[in-house]
UniProtKB/TrEMBL annotation:
The lineage of its organism: Bacteria, Pseudomonadati, Bacteroidota, Chitinophagia, Chitinophagales. This is Polyribonucleotide nucleotidyltransferase. Mg(2+) binds at residues 497, 503. It comes from Flavisolibacter ginsengisoli DSM 18119. CDD domains: KH-I_PNPase, RNase_PH_PNPase_2. Its cofactor is Mg(2+). Belongs to the polyribonucleotide nucleotidyltransferase family. InterPro entries: ExoRNase_PH_dom1, ExoRNase_PH_dom2, ExoRNase_PH_dom2_sf, KH_dom, KH_dom_type_1, KH_dom_type_1_sf, NA-bd_OB-fold, PNPase. Its main location: cytoplasm. Gene3D superfamilies: GHMP Kinase, N-terminal domain, K Homology domain, type 1, Nucleic acid-binding proteins. It is an enzyme of class 2 (transferase). Residues 636-705 form the S1 motif domain. Signal peptide: none annotated. GO terms for cellular component: cytosol. Residues 700-738 are annotated as: Disordered.
Length: 738
């Protein structure tokens, strides 16, 4: 063997084991491991440059999670038959890893780091997203890339009232809570997930259960690192530090930043004042440097001034909030910005809402589609269709910027996913035939636009007539903590998010939490702080929900007149072929004649028929047509029949789609008819009654005259008579058996 293999196996309960291995694959990477559970195998690699790029001012970490279709024995369905750009699902898992890893690196580390996690073998029952961050962290642990701590990530689900770590796919179908939790040995780093209206205390218990499982995984990584022999991390070039310049920046700018922070200024004015302060500071320091005429400060000095000014703003604003309980816009710590909301703001979409909270605004639309509009979601393990789609758009004008318009980035995918998971909890079940597409266009942004999307989405769905039982709202929380003191902020601004220690988004109804996304930037978040943040978020959510119910208290009872109408019915599976017809002839005729769209699926040994159209009368016509095809004729029922052909002895009429019977000449009228000429013609509509079936042939026997009033003379002839009179009565009696 050319390589030495190291491996560590640990248990996650119920006899399930996970193995971390290094030293066999991808040996030229700075760190590489495989994580195996069942037949699922993930390969994680990490590579970091030795030196940062010249002038680098931020940490360039890239994390990519990808699934090889070969891992599940499948060929991609694309035209090229190879994996393409990352799917939304892969992007979301990449974000889960990235958000957990990023705080592990030193603040002054600017070397480029690339983490790639690949699913190389798939297990139908093992969900790889719960193992991906473990793999990434283990790859970093066995490398010399400088991380401060080891972490891991687990899925915590509640199934039948009990928390379970990393459940199988089939077990997840019974789950009412689903959270991914990342943590170090001591601190929670990231939480994301959804629930069917769980309580705040349920969230705390889920986090505690997840943290205990994570400690086991961290210990296994530490033992693997020791086996490999990694005892220290590499040295790296640290940014230049100028103590004198930092002190001068503080002397000149601290009072100005403090005054602007307390002035309750709009975001744009505060931003403009900060730019002016930077220019004035550069000018003062240039004069004090006694430079030769025409000489300017070095680029390195300008960069240091900018960095020190940003550090000063960070400290001043945080101290103001923490010590004086004053926020940048003058609100109290638990106060939500002014709310304004309106529904039915656009005439053509099937549902629309405009939601404004302070300087954050979402214009959201709802489109009702047919099952043919469902979204195909493919992963290595499976392909499935989704009937609920939510897209989030963040154009540059929403923040007053000029940028190229490109496709949605990872941020847009992640924000849209949080809103989708939250609203999904209140949507009608599988028997709701519409495909729903919600689109949130952010028109202004200063604070959480994803939470504005949740609120606007709920309002727009109510406006569209989607039968949701409750509104779902969301609020973004922040945290400032220092030396044992902390302040929890409700409805954070963009600057408060940037300067704070936590970004904590909570969505839910009046009765419980539907979704959470939390990123923590500091160590030492206690359960006490967590409980305080959750309770404050609950109060903020209730305030927003009250305003939403005042706007529209319940979903419209019907869709709008221009929205597609929908009728769903279930038929015996044996009739599916009859509705479709040979080569689709019957269903195509129905759609052509009624202008509707019809979708038929076999579910649970029944045929599910969904009929869509914009005209209610035409939808009803198609509905009745299908009902006629599958209806079982009942003796004694009346039908509107159409004459199909004329014979000397009567007319064949179609009284239900695909079902014909003989209307005997003697059953057309109370009068004795020698011929039907002039009485009935092909294509005529005639009302008939099913009087029976021929016991020999099983053919249907129909009567028209039985529905007509008897002539008076006929009634006298019907009375009992003797002799020839009886013969005459028999002659004129309805001939039901002919």
């Amino acid at each position: 063997m050319l390589s030495q293999k190291f491996s560590k196996t640990f248990s996650i309960g119920d006899g399930r084991e996970v193995t971390i291995e290094t030293g066999r694959l991808a040996r030229q990477a700075d760190g590489s491991v495989t994580v195996t559970m069942g037949n699922s195998i993930l390969l994680a690699t990490v590579v970091a440059t030795e030196e940062p790029k010249p002038g680098q001012e931020f940490f360039p970490l890239s994390v990519d999670y990808m699934e090889k279709f070969a891992s599940a024995g499948r060929i991609p369905g694309s035209f090229f038959k190879r994996e393409g750009r990352l799917s939304d699902g892969e992007i979301l898992i990449s974000r889960l890893i990235d958000r957990a890893l990023r705080p592990l690196f030193p603040d002054d580390y600017f070397c480029e780091v690339q983490v790639i996690v690949t699913l190389i073998s798939s297990d139908a029952e093992v969900m790889p997203d719960s193992l991906a961050c473990l793999a990434a962290s283990a790859a970093l642990a066995v490398s010399t890339v400088p991380i401060q701590e080891i972490i891991s990530e687990v899925r915590v689900s509640r199934i039948d009232g009990k928390f379970r770590i990393n459940p199988s796919r089939s077990e997840m179908e019974k789950s009412d809570m689903d959270f991914i939790i990342a943590a170090t040995e001591k601190n929670i780093m990231m939480v994301e997930g959804e629930a069917k209206e769980c309580s705040e205390e349920d969230i705390v218990k889920a986090i505690e259960a997840g943290h205990e499982a994570i400690k086991v995984q961290i210990k296994a990584q530490q033992e693997l690192r020791d086996m490999v022999g990694v005892t220290s991390k590499r040295e790296y070039a640290k940014p230049e530090e100028n103590v004198v310049l930092r002190k001068r920046v503080e002397e000149f700018a601290k009072a100005r930043i403090d005054a602007d922070s307390r002035a309750n200024l709009p975001k744009t004015e505060r931003k403009e004042n900060y730019k002016k302060l930077y220019e004035e500071l550069k000018e003062v320091i240039t004069k004090e440097a006694n430079l030769a005429e025409g000489e300017d400060l070095s680029d390195e000095t300008k960069k240091l001034i900018k960095n020190y000014l940003a550090d000063l703003q960070y400290d001043v604003v945080r101290d103001m909030i923490l010590n004086d309980k004053i926020r940048l816009d003058g609100r109290g710590l638990d106060q939500v910005r002014p709310l304004d909301m309106e529904i039915d703001v656009l005439p053509t979409p099937h549902g629309s809402a405009l939601f404004t909270r302070g300087e954050t605004q979402s214009l959201t639309t709802v489109t009702l589609g047919t099952p043919l509009d469902e979204l195909l979601v493919e992963s290595a393990a499976k392909s499935e269709y989704s009937k609920f789609i939510l897209h989030y758009n963040f154009p540059p004008f929403s923040t007053g910027e000029v940028k190229f318009l490109r496709g949605p980035g990872r941020r847009e995918v992640g924000h849209g996913n949080l809103a989708q998971r939250s609203l999904k909890q209140m949507l009608p079940g599988a028997d709701y035939a519409y495909t729903l597409r919600v689109v949130s266009d952010i028109l202004e942004s200063n604070g959480s636009s994803s939470m504005a999307t949740v609120c606007a989405g709920s309002l727009a769905l109510f406006d569209a007539g989607v039968p949701m039982p409750k509104h779902v709202a969301g609020v973004a929380m922040g945290l400032i903590s220092k030396e044992g003191k902390f302040a929890v902020l409700t409805d954070i601004l963009g600057d408060e998010d940037h300067l704070g220690d936590m970004d904590f988004k909570v969505t839910g109804t009046r009765d419980g939490i539907c979704g959470i996304q939390m990123d923590i930037k500091v160590d030492g978040l206690s359960m006490e702080i967590m409980r305080n943040a959750l309770e404050q978020a609950r109060r903020g959510r209730m305030h927003i929900l009250d305003a939403m119910y005042n706007c529209i208290p319940e979903a419209r009872s019907d869709v709008k007149p221009h929205a597609p109408r929908m009728v769903k019915m279930f038929i015996d599976r044996e009739y599916i072929g009859a509705v479709i017809g040979p080569g689709g002839k019957v269903i195509q005729e129905i759609q052509r004649e009624t202008g509707t769209t019809i979708n038929i699926e076999e579910k649970n040994n029944m045929g599910e028929v969904s009929i869509f159209g914009t005209d209610k009368e035409k939808v009803d016509k198609a509905h009745n047509w299908v009902k006629g095809i599958v209806a079982v004729p009942t003796v004694g029922d009346e039908y509107e029949a159409v004459v199909k052909s004329i014979m000397p002895y009567g007319a064949f009429v179609e009284f239900l789609p695909g079902k014909q019977g003989l209307l005997h000449i003697s059953e057309v009228s109370w009068k004795r008819l020698e011929t039907l000429e002039g009485v009935l013609n092909e294509g005529d509509k005639v009302k008939v009654k099913l009087t029976g079936t021929d016991p020999k042939t099983g053919k249907f026997k129909l009567s028209r005259k039985i529905l007509l009033p008897k002539p008076e003379g006929q009634q006298r002839m019907d009375r009992p008579q003797t002799g020839n009179g009886q013969d005459r009565q028999q002659e004129n009696r309805p001939q039901e058996n002919q």
